[in-house]
Design brief:
The protein has about 240 residues and is α/β, with parallel strands linked by helices. The chain has helices spanning about 35-40, 65-70, 85-95, 100-115, 115-120, 130-140, 160-175, 190-195, 210-215, 220-230; strands at about 5, 10, 25, 55, 55-60, 70-75, 150, 180-185, 195-200, 205-210. Strand 9 (about 195-200) and strand 10 (about 205-210) form a beta hairpin.
Length: about 240
């Protein structure tokens, strides 16, 4: 797949694959093209070449709203919940594509998946902690039963301990439920603890792809790619 802005090609012939029950992490320094790739996958950017397929169906020409209907879920880095609405109301908003009589049952299913939210169902989202808010954002995105869930830096602006909780207790739980997850993440070491496979982007191309275990053992190669891209790796703790 290739994506860009105007005459500028930012992502150049990148190929990635995500399977059900799998968490794939997209790594790379700032400016590597990660955000551009995500915008292309969710339909915010026009595909320049290649194709995007979901469960064997070509969705390359589908609009962003149509991709949601077809099964692409997305949790942005910011503005991921409605702060003035309660947890329960946020979940209801996430089910806007569902038949009205299915929304309540699906929301209850999300509270079962994330029991911590059940205790907060009447709390306004704007009063939640960072970890609770991200959990709600993921639950809201899963209301429509997406085939693929894309998470854009789910640990951004979270303290290390909270970030680890989000990855190990929220993202891992979603994966274990059989969800296909593509995650963009800057906390490299933490991300590789929960991912099964990873792609490393630099200058708009995949420079390294391997199992998470092999990537964890390739610290020198990872560091070289991050330094060459003008950024350093974000450690798991600090």
């Amino acid at each position: 797949m290739s994506f860009g802005y105007g005459s500028l090609k930012v992502v150049d012939e990148v190929s990635i694959r995500v399977g059900k029950g799998e968490t794939v992490v997209l790594l790379g320094p700032n400016g590597a093209g990660k955000s551009t790739l995500v915008k292309g996958l969710i339909g915010q950017l026009r595909l320049r070449s290649g194709s995007v397929s979901l469960d064997g169906v070509d969705i390359s020409k589908a609009s962003a709203p149509d991709r949601v209907r077809l099964g692409v879920g997305y949790v942005p880095q910011i503005r991921d919940v409605f702060p003035t609405l309660t947890v329960w109301e946020n979940l209801g908003m996430g089910g806007y594509l569902l038949p009205r009589d299915e929304v309540r049952g699906r929301a209850e299913a999300m509270l079962e998946l994330f029991p911590a939210l059940a205790k907060l169902r009447r709390r306004r989202a704007g009063t939640l902690s960072g970890g609770e808010r991200k959990m709600l954002a993921i639950g809201r995105a899963m209301m429509t039963k997406p085939e693929l869930l894309i998470l854009d830096e789910p640990t951004s602006n979270l303290a290390p301990g909270v970030a680890r909780t989000v990855l190990h207790e929220v993202v891992a739980k979603v994966r274990d439920a059989g969800q296909a997850v593509l995650m963009v993440e800057q906390r490299v070491e933490m991300a590789l603890e929960v991912a099964s496979f990873g792609y490393v982007l630099a200058q708009g191309q995949v420079r390294l792809e391997s199992s998470a275990e092999e990537l964890r053992d390739s610290e020198d190669k990872l560091s070289e790619l991050f330094f060459s891209g003008g950024a350093t790796m974000v450690p798991a703790v600090g």
